[in-house]
């Protein structure tokens, strides 16, 4: 198979972890006889520094012609502490999602057995949990009108959804539920929000088309509690952009660590594969970031964008094997991890590559 | 002390749990020689059934003249599954908050040692956690304009904050932090939302007035993760209405169970004391609801509205003693709770009353 992959490291630890992801792609290509070509592009803070724009036209052009995009992270503390900054790294990320029509963000939450102890949640609560989140990614308060009024003393943002936007993501979620545990949980705040009532109407209207899928509705507040109280009761979860942002970060504790979670953003064209951890400036450049989320992004990319199921499975098995062999990065290790098994970003990457080559 | 207390049971298990709360008030009055008088009023679904309105004028009038309000819960599944219902129980709750100017919702999250095992989170993560949440309660997307457009095919809600609204709640949080661990964490989504950037500006502007309090800012997604990963790092947390709704329900797992969490809504006038659990129609009328959140509401009421610290402490100690004696309701019990210690709502209430009388 001949494919062109764009690597977009972005900010913070993005460069360190996507470097490992790219090496995994190279080894997979070699092992299975594929021809992958690569390019790189800037986004976020590094793009602002280089070009003034968080999503330069050149980056967007390269994105449009790539077969898949391996993404790092976006963000910089400089802007977080300056609420009045007009140009912000995150604008690049949001604009990319909109321009590429990436309306469905898939976040599989599954614990590798070896990491049962890395979570703050009890092992007996976690064992067997396996959730697939569908987060809507191009609507909601992320893309509604926002403004200052009243000499800057009042500010608003608009949570907004149209039925067609809800329908296309909910359909994807129903279809995924069909191939899995046949349960769909839709999360909203329909007891207060009009946009949530519209969301719930759409789910209710579609449900009869999927009689084999059991549907439940949860309010986002109750869900934030249930998710960690009893994660095993969930199979596929579908929700809006903002609630999905919050709930999937929370759900990272189900997977042991944020450093283990990959996501796929898909929609009208090219898929973007991005760890759910952010730019993590506190550990940037220290060589300690966990590269496994980026490696698992590669597995999602191979599976979803290229349909290469065996290759994807090979990557996941390599991660599993390395964890079974006891190797850990700092975020998933603990006091009983032996010093020679506690690895930095590159060394962890090397273990994965060796295992893949074997 | 002579005081008038309005009991507003509302829907679902509200009646069962506030009945216990009221008995606790009666025993405390007797024990400490206070003169408490009582009245009752309707809100929510039961009010709609009786009067057509979720917050009848009579209820509101009674609320305005009470010295404090002991509140149950509001909500009914009938409306949840009917997104097009025009009159909804929750409107009564929201209107009450607005009419009474209850802009600050305090939610103390503290684990009783005996409940370390009732949580899905590991005991070593929880031991010592003690967080006081300040949730803004009369602004945000709860009270912004909402509308259907486009023949009903599009819906929006407006997240909106003015500086004065943020300032008054943030000041309360700073002042509370001063009397506690001297740390304040403000939660927003300032990397995306304009209303969050306004929120952050206000916190930054006030911080110099409280040089003894260490301030940190977290994005709501990161916070949803950190809260359960490392609850001990937080002291006072302040956030908007929607994020507070989600995060405090999540935080109920830190306290072992939602059935243990009380909240105080205060502001311009009368304080309202309300469990954070909802109407829980699945267990309504079965006599199994945990009344301890309502009992702990009484402790907050005595402390905050009446300044009766000893009385409040007496109630908390009674709860502690009963838990130490091994008594549990279903939600905080487990397979090793002996049958004669597993109590229903009334029996648990009776244990508390006996202990208070002793
Ligand atoms: C960086 C930020 C804008 C982004 C979001 O909120 O979508 C991030 O948290 C994510 O989940 O991808
Ligand atoms: C019932 C509902 C409207 C309410 C809210 O969202 O504020 C409840 O969840 C709460 O936390 O008091």
Automatic annotation (TrEMBL), chains A, B:
Record note on cofactor: Binds 1 Mg(2+) or Mn(2+) ion per subunit.
Site description Important for catalysis, residues in chain: 142, 189
Enzyme class, broadest EC rank = oxidoreductase
| Keyword terms of this UniProt record | Amino-acid biosynthesis, Branched-chain amino acid biosynthesis, Cytoplasm, Leucine biosynthesis, Magnesium, Manganese, Metal-binding, NAD, Oxidoreductase
Any GO molecular function: magnesium ion binding
In this chain, Mg(2+) is annotated as bound at 221, 245, 249
Question: Could you tell me what reaction this enzyme catalyses?
Answer: (2R,3S)-3-isopropylmalate + NAD(+) = 4-methyl-2-oxopentanoate + CO2 + NADH
Q: In which pathway does it act?
A: Amino-acid biosynthesis; L-leucine biosynthesis; L-leucine from 3-methyl-2-oxobutanoate: step 3/4
Occurrences of domain Isopropylmalate dehydrogenase-like (ranges): 4-352
Keyword Repressor applies:
no
Q: Does the keyword Membrane apply?
A: no
Sorted alphabetically, the Gene Ontology cellular component annotations on this record are: cytosol
* Chain positions recorded as substrate binding sites: 97, 107, 135, 221
Where in or outside the cell? Cytoplasm
GO BP: any one term: L-leucine biosynthetic process
Extract the InterPro entries matched here.
IsoCit/isopropylmalate_DH_CS, IsoPropMal-DH-like_dom, Isopropylmalate_DH
Q: Which cofactors go with this protein? A: Mn(2+); Mg(2+)
Report the EC code(s) recorded for this entry: 1.1.1.85
- Function statement: Catalyzes the oxidation of 3-carboxy-2-hydroxy-4-methylpentanoate (3-isopropylmalate) to 3-carboxy-4-methyl-2-oxopentanoate. The product decarboxylates to 4-methyl-2 oxopentanoate.
User: Quaternary state and partners of this protein?
Assistant: Homodimer.
Q: State the family named in the UniProt similarity comment for this chain.
A: Belongs to the isocitrate and isopropylmalate dehydrogenases family. LeuB type 1 subfamily.
Q: What is this protein called?
A: 3-isopropylmalate dehydrogenase
Gene field? leuB
